[in-house]
Fold these 2 entries.
Entry 1:
Amino acid sequence: MTRYLNLAEYISSRIEQGLYGPGERLPSVRALSLEHGVSLTTVQQAYRVLESSGLAIPKPKSGYFVPAGRRLPELPKMGRPSLRPVDISQWDLVQDLMRQEQNANAIQLGCGMPDTTAPTLKPLLTALARISRRSDSPSLQYNHLQGVLTLREQIARLGVDSGCRLTPAEIVVTSGCQEALSIAIRALCEPGDIVAIASPCFHGIIQLLKAAGLKALEIPTDPVTGISLEAMEMALEQWPIKAIQLTPNCNNPLGYIMPDDRKRAMIRLAQRYDVPIIEDDIYGDLAFRYPRPRTLKSFDDDGRVLLCSSFSKTLAPGLRIGWIAPGRYLPQVLHMKYVGSGTTATQPQLAVAEFIAKGHYLPHLRRMRKQYQRHRDLMTEWVSRYLPEGTRVSKPQGGFTLWVELPDEFDTYTLNRLLEAEDIQIANGNIFSAAGKYRNCLRLNFAGVPNRKIEQAINKIGLAVAQLLPA
Amino acid sequence: MTRYLNLAEYISSRIEQGLYGPGERLPSVRALSLEHGVSLTTVQQAYRVLESSGLAIPKPKSGYFVPAGRRLPELPKMGRPSLRPVDISQWDLVQDLMRQEQNANAIQLGCGMPDTTAPTLKPLLTALARISRRSDSPSLQYNHLQGVLTLREQIARLGVDSGCRLTPAEIVVTSGCQEALSIAIRALCEPGDIVAIASPCFHGIIQLLKAAGLKALEIPTDPVTGISLEAMEMALEQWPIKAIQLTPNCNNPLGYIMPDDRKRAMIRLAQRYDVPIIEDDIYGDLAFRYPRPRTLKSFDDDGRVLLCSSFSKTLAPGLRIGWIAPGRYLPQVLHMKYVGSGTTATQPQLAVAEFIAKGHYLPHLRRMRKQYQRHRDLMTEWVSRYLPEGTRVSKPQGGFTLWVELPDEFDTYTLNRLLEAEDIQIANGNIFSAAGKYRNCLRLNFAGVPNRKIEQAINKIGLAVAQLLPA
Ligand SMILES: Cc1ncc(COP(=O)(O)O)c(C=O)c1O
Ligand SMILES: Cc1ncc(COP(=O)(O)O)c(C=O)c1O
């Protein structure tokens, strides 16, 4: 991270905190240079970054100003509940999304892919290549059902950063976070059971419930603090809920981080009603703030949280390396892992373990966190510039997805058809609901390095939306 | 394959067909040299191979003879049925087996690992390393849910050898054959359903039924021709069977190849009762005879066979690359794949595709088939030499597992405890039954290059068995 980028971030966070309002003058180049002990050039570079992301405008001879017209877009409204547990639809729309992902010409704004081009990822490829070349080729044979020990040791060590004390014996390596979630659900539930989920919720989880013959109960969710505890308590009173699934950190799609006191309260609630929690922490290491947020698991004192995660968002999804720390459900989880896919591939486990052990993981995270935060600001700026007045936008605290809410009567399904013709891929809001809500919302990926083409795509989205909006 | 090994195999097959009985004189070195147009040295080398596997003994000045005491051990008895569908136990014993697999000092005769040390496998490691080094690193990103296209093309091409016409669009790549089986079962069945299986049957399938809340109906199975069609028909009459699972080629554990007319009849039966068949062909490419046997799928004209397989036995299990060709059940299978683990890791798919496309697969298979056939002969020889009279032994037609049947009252569980102390790992027979039958049987792996240590291990097994046999 260079000095000028650090400084640019410092200033932009001040603007966001409201220290400098719309139209106000920002500190002079000289003042900042003195205050931060950096050169004038560094400050000028920082201002140029802010300028290009629309956060500062230069006025000749009088310095930099916060844009007068700049209003932060409003946050999305509270997520809506389902009145009763529902059977799940929308699989065809998820398939549509995946089909579009295969279009190499498309600007991919709908998918969940991280940026895998960072140079800090190089040592991982080197490790993969070296392990392949070893003549005793450990990558060729079956390994421990729980996963390679050196990797589980590293995962346990990283757990400390989220407040968890884990041992390698409590961890099971999986084929991505999706397998971890699938194993958790199957270890806990039988067809017909009810699972409480946030609304909106990652479509991989919703489809999993569908495939397992379960019913989803959608709990209203606040775009800043996460799932409503009050609504959750009411639901627990009213329905025989078999498990609760939550993604409390850098939520996909809303981007919130549940505050610690609410996490603690959530655990107490689960204890009171004796319900297990399946926690998805896949984006937790990509929180923009440091130190990273705690997991629900870190507040869990009776083994009821099944913590699921993977390196798909932090390193690379193609590795398919995830894990689950299932607490008291370890025996059932091991059985499900054995029958579901047997052991996990050996070579990528060894490579990831080596990458972390050699100290490459944290610097890579640092870089990606900063990068994604910058992208978020720029993407938010573009969305508020190009989409019609009244568009609401989430303010993700980590990860790389933005939730965009259009007027209630808007239908992103039609929008999607228009955009597909333009080779622009977005994710329809209603795949994030068990009952097909959020047709007026869409999710945008901002992982990739922002460029002119992406800006143009957002511009096109704005034009298409305007065209479709009821007059 | 060298000339002398070819010749040795030719002679041994003649002995097995009974052309040369116990104590009889084998053709002279000169006669064979003339007949086969090879040098005298080649014939002598061939005879030395036969000598060392106990199939020929030299008598000074009079040539080679079939050992007088040589009696081929009897085949195992017909597999026993369950009288009604049963709930499944034995998971603790499967876990025991896996625990022992982690003992690096043990002689591993219980596991299902292939030999991965053959030089013909080297190009696979080279491909893995090269793909990792590519700067655009396709291995890092998510890929098509059905798997990498180039791999599906190669799998479709190989299908021709087993009589199948498949297109890449009909194939879904999975994390090993276990995931393929798991997806197939979950796509077809709901808790409480009955699945018909062979008896004995691979424990991975039995545990899968257990985890999915299904009941197993064990159908008696002949150690030479496979599952009894008569018993199967009776079962289909009597019970609402939801699916049939079969491993007709180089069966694990019995080693039979179901004859083609029985395969055809099996398909007709499934059509008559309108039941889908989950076919496991994981060892099919390792049949000792050439061309390899046909799959049930190749007789299937209405899409009711879900063909499952992997490269775990033919190449390397640590890759975790398998596939399923699910016929008319493709939509359900894709949904299960998506929710179960998402896409399959990219890099090993690319490497396997390259390995096959460059023509390395078939020569590797040729080598392994010959190797495993030689090992089978030697292992059979050792078992009949060292285990007590009356021990029955399967005669596998492919693959690398031997099924050994001891007197009915014998309990391999106690045997296993004795052997564990000696660092010898075997597979208990009763994990191959849903109802805990076959306590008097064990399965031995003969993939590894036979050596003095393995022979000693078989000797020790023999001694332990003798010690435990009721007087
Ligand atoms: C919240 C969440 N959980 C799980 C997954 C699946 O992750 P993986 O690719 O590791 O299976 C995703 C991927 O999009 C996700 O966004
Ligand atoms: C008959 C049979 N099917 C499936 C499997 C599982 O194969 P994979 O390792 O490809 O998941 C095995 C492995 O032992 C097997 O023997």
Entry 2:
Amino acid sequence: MTIRVGIMGYGNLGRGVELALRHNPDMELKAVFTRRNPDSVHLLTEGAQVLEASKAVSMADEIDVMILCGGSATDLPEQTPYYAQYFNVIDSFDTHAHIPQHFAAVDAAAKKSGKLGLISVGWDPGMFSVSRLYADCILPQGSSYTFWGKGVSQGHSDAIRRIPGVVDARQYTIPVQKALDEVRSGSCPQLTTREKHTRECFVVAEEGADKAAIEQAIVTMPNYFADYDTTVHFISKEEMERDHSGIPHGGFVIHTGKTGAENEHNHTIEYRLTLDSNPEFTSSVLVAYARAVYRMAKEGQTGCKTVFDVAPAYLSAKDGEQLRASML
Amino acid sequence: MTIRVGIMGYGNLGRGVELALRHNPDMELKAVFTRRNPDSVHLLTEGAQVLEASKAVSMADEIDVMILCGGSATDLPEQTPYYAQYFNVIDSFDTHAHIPQHFAAVDAAAKKSGKLGLISVGWDPGMFSVSRLYADCILPQGSSYTFWGKGVSQGHSDAIRRIPGVVDARQYTIPVQKALDEVRSGSCPQLTTREKHTRECFVVAEEGADKAAIEQAIVTMPNYFADYDTTVHFISKEEMERDHSGIPHGGFVIHTGKTGAENEHNHTIEYRLTLDSNPEFTSSVLVAYARAVYRMAKEGQTGCKTVFDVAPAYLSAKDGEQLRASML
């Protein structure tokens, strides 16, 4: 029997989940739920339904895990607790500062319904969080550093697009090589925001726009760019489409720590992701953890969990014996 | 209340466990058990006892987790199932091919006694295994590669020392840069043993020994060196002590995989360790997982487990709320 999956929201992430399910033959896409007109949504998966989001609850008995593919700003804070009343749910909520309150809301709903919720699944939060935790536990006498990129930041790209005179924009976050080298050396440097990452912006301006003013508006923008060394390149619409249509991302979690009678031995643990498609990778993580949700719920676990609470074996379609023989 | 730990065997690994416990204030070294004369063993830890191995069982009520620090060849296959009759146990059994039978023996003993056993904890098997498993589950359309080094292989160093005319030897396993680059490119190359690693040997020969014969004996040695490109350097006893007294190691788990409607997106997951001291890092992993053993046993779990069965949160002294707020 396959694990029956629902997808709530069919943007980049939802489409990525649909694609990832193809590589997991023990799982099956049952239905996609959308706020758009279902007739306008065309799936790649034969046999899966497209339904209005409002119809989801009526499918509660036919879906083992609902994967919530909305945004963290406004969708998930409402959707995850709501759907946890009816389904085992999983989301990629990534507003780090609001995780405790999101956890509490999902936990309350899922405990009441007897369902299981798993939040903040992806790569950061997600695989990077797991890497930070393992490293910190193994080498408590040490420090963890997280670097992002090279990759496209959607939030920063959007911020540039809101500047008058800007037609389109793409912003890349780039880790500073010198900072990476310093961290790897084990010297545990104190690094400022500016020392860790640079920001590179590619901008299509309206004809006749004041490019100097746009550049100034970008590099001085508080919270987004003012604390970074930012470079701005003006390019044509054609160059944007040709060279910047992808959504690559990635980054590093580097932990250095010391052992020995005099702390004389240095160790470096480094976890690195290099991703051609940020949403498709996040979706792939969601699908693997959806398998875990199904199993943990079947064991009777309820309430809200995070990646910290999931034993790695739950992610695999293989059983314990196969895993021990092939991967340990 | 602290977690009371026993150490069985006080070689490099056992001493490393003692040192690692210093960085974990929620844990306490209760006793070290040795086959040597206890009077000849001097601990760094005040208040901890040194006892003959035969006395261990009488301490069953005073030790929450026994960390078994013997060797995989002959010690652990006997010790881990034996002590699982009396203690929650953890070991670093690393003979990959024999893990299934070791698991079965420990599982039977621990289920009978109602104790918990955790085997094959370290970095390979251990953290590398966990990295392979996560990566394979996230990107099933992909391949994992494990590289070791640069680091000292004790087994290969010992093999050289058994050659007539050799006084001392140190063997380094070194990953081949070209192979690393090929794997990272996502091309999923088929690599032979020779293409993945080279072996570099530093040898102190007896005065008047036939160095050409020693070198020939090394590079043609079946299983150990014949399948590798091996270089041999003859050095003095003083050079050996000065330049090769450490036990560094490390390596890489690199997984590349594809996503997308046409598998058009490549992703690389890389986990890398760079370790000044192989035994001290392995000991640090053991200590973090000993905390997990204590907690899982307290929950009533019994039988044999591996790192695949341990949720990351169990490794940490912090509670779920702290972890979510600080590390997710």
